[in-house]
Amino acid sequence: MTALLPPDPVYCLKSSDLGAFHSLCFHTSERLYAGNFHGKVQLWDLQTNRSPYQLAAGKSPIIGLAHTEDALITQEKEGTVKLWELTNSAYVLRHETSTDHVGFCRFVYHNDAVIMPRGDANISILCGQSFKERQLLNPTAAEPTLPPLGTVMCILPVEVKEKPYLLAAHEAGTLVLWDLNSSKPISHLKVSDDDCLMALDYDPFTNRGVCGGASDKIYVFSLERPTMQLCKKSEISVKNAGISRLKIRKDLKVFVSAGRDGRIRIFSWKSLRPLAVLTEHRKELLDVIYSEEKVSMWKAVIMAAAGSDGQISLWDLYN
User: Fold this and answer.
1) pLDDT (tens digit per residue) in 180-192
2) Deepest of 119, 155, 172, 279, by most Cβ within 10 A of its Cβ?
């Protein structure tokens, strides 16, 4: 039987002067935002595949992006998070705060809250409208018996039986599960003794997640109920070390890894078997996301990937 060849991208967005793209986000299925190395955010119109607008958001790489109904939130590598209000003609800066965190951990916008890293292993939760801090998660103060965690590298809000939790992946190779109602860590798992975790995703329907980082391993873990204990299940080896992002698709059919080798690896989420390797990019990949709805140009949910080669590849993986 002849093996299926990997698909080609449906389109590649390129611009010669923008440098590496560090972050992506969709605002509706027709508008794609990309944060670049030079501190700018580029808007791409996916009906024309052109860029009609650019925002000078900061002076260091834009490593995090989110778009609410009427505002754009940006995060710079040097630690500043800003809220830009969308007016009739442009984005206007309304709020700004410092994370005290210089690194690669991206903020998350969830349920009108901005969840972002602080110095050391701390995590701050801000009101998404006012940027005032609502909650501070300090693992040392909340649970002195926790082992050394190192810097927080990746955060992910999850809901289990309508209760809010937060997963955090740390520099020391440890996952921590926070109960947001009590502001206490209720479980932790050392997935590796020598891997700095930088990527994380979780599926609440199967109680299973994946994480990875500097090594050539993707770690599969579960969240056991009703104890809410994190348990390591298995490992998946990839050819080259360095995993920047892990994303489970919304339909739970596949998940993808974005690597420092420029490869997008597609796996079955049910069996964890590798399905394909996409080789469009020649340098390190830094972000990968899915559109929430079908993009009209291709009548499909689109995956977008970007990195150090200065291009954004768009993929229809359903076909």
Assistant:
1) 999 999 999 999 9
2) 155
Residues 113, 128: Cα–Cα separation, whole Å = 5
Task: State yes or no: pLDDT of 1 exceeds 60.
Answer: no
Q: Measured between alpha carbons, how far is 203 from 208 in angstroms, rounded to an integer?
A: 5
Report residue 208's pLDDT band, with 50, 70 and 90 as the boundaries.
Answer: very high
3-state secondary structure the chain: CCCCCCCCCCEEEECCCCCCEEEEEEECCCEEEEEECCCEEEEEECCCCEEEEEEECCCCCEEEEEECCCEEEEEECCCEEEEEEECCCCEEEEEEEECCCCCCCCCEEECCEEEEECCCCCEEEEECCCCCEEEEECHHHHCCCCCCCCCEEEEEEEEECCEEEEEEEECCCEEEEEECCCCEEEEEEECCCCCCEEEEEEECCCCEEEEEECCCEEEEEEEECCCCEEEEEEEEECCCCCEEEEEECCCCCEEEEEECCCCEEEEECCCCCEEEEECCCCCCEEEEEECCCCECCCCECCEEEEECCCEEEEECCCC
What's the token pair of residue 315? 């993929």
For residue 82, give the nearest of 68, 72, 96 by alpha carbon: 96
Own/partner pairs, 47-56, CB within 8 angstroms, 24+ separation: 47/296, 47/297, 49/11, 49/13, 49/297, 51/13, 51/15, 53/90, 55/84, 55/90, 55/91
